[in-house]
């Protein structure tokens, strides 16, 4: 039997949270879905939990992926899915009962939108949460397709376990790619580069649980440097279409880390004219402009790569006062 929605839930050693995650899908108000549980080499009691649910509900199919990594598990689910829309779910999280219903209705009513997510309600489970809280506050602050497109190079613009997307997108542009980068972020950048419109429903439809074991905390593919590598690759493609001075750019931020990350842009073929900073003597490797010296809009394209908390917003506000237009004269990348 084919269902309209395929929910893909990969899991690896998730015996403490898997039951709650599965039940949150089975308790959805919209019942026409299949739930694909993808075991990715679990060695704890997760598989027994999944088997029990699968034996009790015909909508559940239990799959096994022998290649390690969530990208491979997600692709296993995609290749075995039958629904016309695909929803993602994590073994740590909890979907609200109206999630599938709301997102499916949104896609039906907005045929120009290919992928829909939502804001999230954040549940920390460890002490080191400042960065995650900051990220959740940021990612919950914008929902429109234009805002998602403009924020794509800051961080992943849609929280991955909230996404629901049309099957034809996967069939045309592929699923997850396994590599030394965050696979969920790369997939969203690839879909955005292809012109897929994304939007978020402006209400939380998922409890996002932050455990110390979460991949974003433990896997080097989710390090800041890994994010910047994949950003650089897709920014080059974006710059070709949107930067009026392509391949020439100015980078805001001249500190050591920013200079290292700017080299990733040069490796992709972008021409770094110089840096903008609060201190002109930060480096002698390139020309450095004090930020008050930048010319009026229309004479340079600025890439802000400063990652200090709040700095991006301050830079944006400063540039807008100088009549720089985001997406035309500058872009945030950090």
UniProtKB/TrEMBL annotation:
Q: Where is the Glycosyltransferase 2-like domain?
A: 6-174
Q: What is this protein called?
A: Glycosyltransferase
Q: Which UniProt keywords apply?
A: Transferase
Molecular function via GO = hexosyltransferase activity
Lyase is among the record's keywords: no
What domain of life? Bacteria
Question: What InterPro entries does the entry give?
Answer: Glyco_trans_2-like, Nucleotide-diphossugar_trans
